[in-house]
Amino acid sequence: AQSVTQLDSQVPVFEEAPVELRCNYSSSVSVYLFWYVQYPNQGLQLLLKYLSGSTLVESINGFEAEFNKSQTSFHLRKPSVHISDTAEYFCAVSGGGSQGNLIFGKGTKLSVKP
Amino acid sequence: DGGITQSPKYLFRKEGQNVTLSCEQNLNHDAMYWYRQDPGQGLRLIYYSQIVNDFQKGDIAEGYSVSREKKESFPLTVTSAQKNPTAFYLCASSIAQGNQPQHFGDGTRLSIL
């Protein structure tokens, strides 16, 4: 069975500091990996995804994530965060199984302080 | 602008009552999904539909029902059999089969009176 572990439930950082949100997965099959962001009282937005090819994927707002097959990780990083990055971030994995059956982590709340 | 509209934003249910959550999309997407979000639990799949007049159970379908009579609409009914319905419900869509959800609505928060 697939599972996703987000190691930190909350990550407080100061503005302009770097941040890493950790995500590890377990799966016996090839996987697709995703990061979603949820702003307060809103739905989720797809931030970035790894399907195949280059193991480093980037979003349009400066986040990046690297697929590491040997460590079964897909950590999300940003070199310098803004107040507007305050949100909850969800890692998800999909591989085989039913259509749409993304397995989500429990989320990491990123709080950026001035 | 294309997107997913969920209504209402907040919904209250009395004990023993069925309630229906609306989800409409104008993205021309074939696949639609319903997820339930509980605090500290991430999202769990309730039902999904790959095409009109077809839908499949997800991981936690008990106590819920859906219909897909139109491509644009995928309403979710929370029945009285769902003993713990208080949660945040998210509808999502993807362009076709084999694609993971790309667009989400803003959610409906359901509470029990």
Explain this structure to me?
The complex is a heterodimer of chains A (114) and B (113). With 114 residues, chain A is mainly beta. Helices cover 0% and strands 51% of the residues of chain A. In chain A, strands 2, 5, 6, 10, 11 and 12 form a six-stranded mixed β-sheet that branches. Chain A is globular, with a radius of gyration of 14 Å. The model of chain A has no long low-confidence stretch (mean pLDDT 89). Chain B has 113 residues and is an all-beta fold. Chain B is 0% helix and 51% strand. Chain B is built from no helices and eleven strands. The chains are: A mainly beta (114), B mainly beta (113).
The stretches of 5 or more residues of chain A where confidence is low (pLDDT under 50) are none
The shape of chain B is globular
Strand content of chain B: over 45%
Order of helices and strands of chain A: EEEEEEEEEEEE
Quaternary structure state of the chains depicted: heterodimer
What is the number of beta strands of chain A? 12
Shape of chain A: globular
Strand content of chain A is: over 45%
Rg of chain A (C-alpha, Å):
14 Å
Q: Summary?
A:
The complex is a heterodimer of chains A (114) and B (113). Chain A is mostly beta strands and 114 residues long.
Topology:
The complex is a heterodimer of chains A (114) and B (113).
Chain A: E1 3-5, E2 10-14, E3 19-21, E4 24-26, E5 32-38, E6 44-50, E7 56-58, E8 64-68, E9 73-78, E10 87-94, E11 103-104, E12 108-113
Parallel strand pairs in A: 2-12
Antiparallel strand pairs in A: 1-4, 3-9, 5-6, 5-10, 7-8, 8-9, 10-11, 10-12
Chain B: E1 4-7, E2 10-13, E3 19-25, E4 31-38, E5 42-51, E6 54-57, E7 64-66, E8 76-78, E9 87-94, E10 103-104, E11 108-112
Parallel strand pairs in B: 2-11
Antiparallel strand pairs in B: 1-3, 3-8, 4-5, 4-9, 5-6, 7-8, 9-10, 9-11
